[in-house]
Design goal:
The structure holds two protein chains of two kinds. Chain A is an alpha/beta fold. Chain A folds into two domains: about 260 residues, 2-Layer Sandwich (Aconitase, domain 3), CATH 3.30.499.10; about 150 residues, Aconitase, domain 3 (2-Layer Sandwich). Chain A has 15 helices and 18 strands. The longest helix of chain A has 16 residues. Chain A starts with a helix and ends with a helix. By secondary structure, chain B is α/β, with parallel strands linked by helices. Helix content of chain B is about 25%, strand content about 20%. Chain B contains six helices and seven strands. In chain B, strand 5 and strand 6 form a beta hairpin. Chain B is globular and about 50 Å long. Chain B starts with a strand and ends in an 8-residue tail after the last helix. Classes of the chains: A alpha/beta, B alpha/beta. At the A-B interface, strand 1, helix 2, helix 3, helix 5 and strand 7 of A face helix 4 and helix 6 of B.
Chain lengths: ~425, ~180
């Protein structure tokens, strides 16, 4: 069996499953957030008149989309959300002040473990695969049912293996590989409902943060989940934070894959996805010199410490171009603090960047710097369809934090390797 | 059961973000309410209160990546149901809304490139047991992927919430695996 098949089997009381089979798995954790959470609890209450959660320490509540609230309507919605979370005495409530983007919180606070299934009411729950879990996005209905019963249904997905060979070039990041694969696959439906398993030497050498970026964007490839089998690096990352026990797990040597692809990361350079369509991808050489006026680094895809570290390295003693407004949003309070302590934000502020408090922010066009008419945005976020960050008359180029940083010096899309080597 | 009605033929990439525009993401999940502004971002024609409902469509026939873009909000599905949509046929669906559709018992039926052989306003007849569709306007037939047994059972229960309520009531919830 593949790792995903094993996780589906072992968490549903089976020794064996095969793709296409329907299973009800026991979930390790259920995450919901501010703007959908109340409806999850309402649904749960309709299933459980005695209002008994399956395990309140496994219902993780996060305020990330609406905080800090820009309107009175959302402030009121947040108050209703807080009231219901407090009523259930939820021990893990990451509200404003202790907040972060839900997927970052789930991993960095140890709520996701290898070999287990964790679900969340937001599409980028695929991120959890970075530590060897099956992470899956579900709707309010599934969350309500899991809150009451601890269970969630799944059709066991077919597996696709991506073997990533070679070594990473300087200033090439997991995001570049992710966008490269996006361009290689195209969104034509052949990866939908499937699991994408990342393996190979270039994955072994990748940090947990980089693995999070890769798994995060598997949802945007149409996949059901993305996963990297746990290794020593996973164990070291989880040791101080894990909430629960786990065991090493991986795919069998004779596991069946629907397809196997190989990518030599040595040949992957900085990569950019052009406005409106995620799979309209170009190597940086083809888009160099394009002007932009807004720069954004943050989100559950690229708002982690190593993302701001590479930006600080590039922008040290440099000045962001006068025509560029840059917004940086750390993915959590822990990331924020680490970036302050390590001096990254000092460097970025001196270069002319604005730092916002952790939230989903403008990535989904919600607040903290949404797009207006005519904006051309160079973003390290995850989606670039029309209107994603606000105005439908804005253009969004997606790329890595390194490209955003290097480009911001000149106000045009720039290869970070040129800045480095010059 | 056979269902007959008028179809709206859509292009590839009808995005969930356009089906339910941002200001309604925080609305309560309610078929009648969610239907009023469903598809508001898809075309100017639908961008008014009851814009989509007033067209009187029963079916949607789409290309690739229907309800794509990744939002998990169920308003997309309840909005369609409230607007009178009885089934959606598409070459491919984004999995999040595919899952939500199963949970609400709204047939999302995989049908290869059926959108190329239908036009908006055509009258279709869908047999939900066999998965066949007959276009009564142009006489063409389509064999779609039939609905899986679990999906049919959830639909018969009136959605996953009711399915689970029944399992709780009859004590079989503990055996669910």
């Amino acid at each position: 069996m593949t790792i995903t098949e094993k996780i589906m089997a072992f968490n549903s009381g089976r020794d064996f499953v095969k793709p296409g089979e329907l299973v009800w798995v026991n979930v390790h954790s259920v995450m919901t957030m501010d703007y959908l959470g109340k409806q999850c609890f309402r649904g749960f209450e309709s299933l459980s008149p005695e209002k008994r959660l399956f395990d309140k320490s496994k219902v993780i509540c996060v305020s990330d989309h609406l905080v800090p609230p820009p309107t009175t309507e959302w402030a009121t919605l947040l108050n209703e959300w807080r009231e219901i979370v407090k009523r259930y005495d939820i021990p893990y409530f990451y509200d404003l002040g202790r907040q972060g983007i839900a997927h970052q919180i789930m991993v960095e606070q140890g709520h996701v473990l290898p070999g287990k299934v964790s679900i969340g009411t937001d599409s980028h729950a695929n991120t959890y695969g970075a530590v060897g879990a099956v992470g899956n996005a579900i709707g309010v209905t599934d969350a309500a049912i899991a809150m009451a019963t601890g269970k969630c249904w799944f059709r066991v997905p077919e597996s696709v293996k991506l073997i990533i060979n070679g070594s990473w070039q300087p200033y090439v990041m997991a995001k570049d590989l992710s966008l490269h694969i996006m361009g290689m696959m195209h969104w034509n439906g052949h990866l939908i409902y499937k699991t994408l398993e990342y393996t190979g030497p270039a994955i072994e050498s990748l940090s947990i943060a980089g693995r999070m970026t890769l798994c995060n964007m598997t949802v945007d490839l149409g996949a059901k989940n993305g996963i990297v089998a746990p290794d020593q690096k996973t164990a070291e990352y989880l040791a101080p934070i894990q909430k629960g026990d786990w065991h090493m797990i991986g795919s069998d040597a004779d596991a069946h894959y629907d397809a196997v692809y190989e990518v030599d990361v040595t040949n992957v350079g900085p990569t950019v996805s052009k406005p409106d369509k995620l799979d309209d991808v170009a190597p940086i050489e083809q888009v160099k010199g394009i002007k932009f006026n807004k720069a954004f680094v943050g989100t559950c895809t690229n708002g982690r410490t190593e993302d701001f570290a590479i930006m600080a390295e590039i922008l040290k003693d440099k000045t962001i171009h006068r025509d560029v407004n840059m917004i940086c949003i750390p993915a959590s309070q822990d990331v924020y603090l680490e970036c302050i302590e390590k001096g990254y934000f000092t460097t970025l502020i001196k270069a002319g960047a604005s730092i916002e408090t952790p939230s989903c922010g403008p990535c989904a066009g919600i607040h903290s710097g949404v797009a207006g008419d005519g904006d051309i945005i160079l973003s390290a976020g995850n989606r670039n369809m029309k209107g994603r960050m606000g105005s439908r008359n804005a253009q969004i180029y997606l790329t890595s934090p390194a490209v955003v940083a290097a480009s911001s010096i000149f106000g045009v899309i720039t290869d970070p390797r040129e800045v480095y080597f010059n | 059961m056979k269902i007959t009605g008028k179809a709206w033929v859509a292009k590839d990439y009808v995005m969930s973000y356009d089906m339910v525009i941002q200001k309604f993401w925080t609305s309560p999940i309610d078929k009648t309410e969610n239907a009023k502004w469903i598809m508001a971002g898809v075309s100017e024609d639908f961008n008014k209160e009851n814009g989509f409902i007033d067209k009187g469509y029963t079916f949607i026939v789409a290309g690739h990546n229907f309800a794509g873009g990744g939002k998990s909000i169920e308003h997309c599905i309840t909005g369609l149901m409230g607007a009178g949509i009885k089934a959606v046929f598409a070459t491919s669906f984004a999995r999040l809304q595919f899952r939500n559709a199963i949970n609400y018992g709204l047939p999302f039926v995989t049908a290869q490139e059926m959108n190329l052989d239908c036009e908006t306003g055509d009258i279709l007849e869908y047999d939900d047991e066999t998965g066949t569709v007959l276009n009564l306007t142009n006489g063409k037939n389509f064999n779609c992927v039939p609905v899986a047994p679990f999906v049919a059972e959830v639909a018969r229960s009136g959605g996953l919430m009711n399915f689970i309520k029944q399992k709780i009531a009859d004590g079989s919830i503990a055996n669910l695996n």
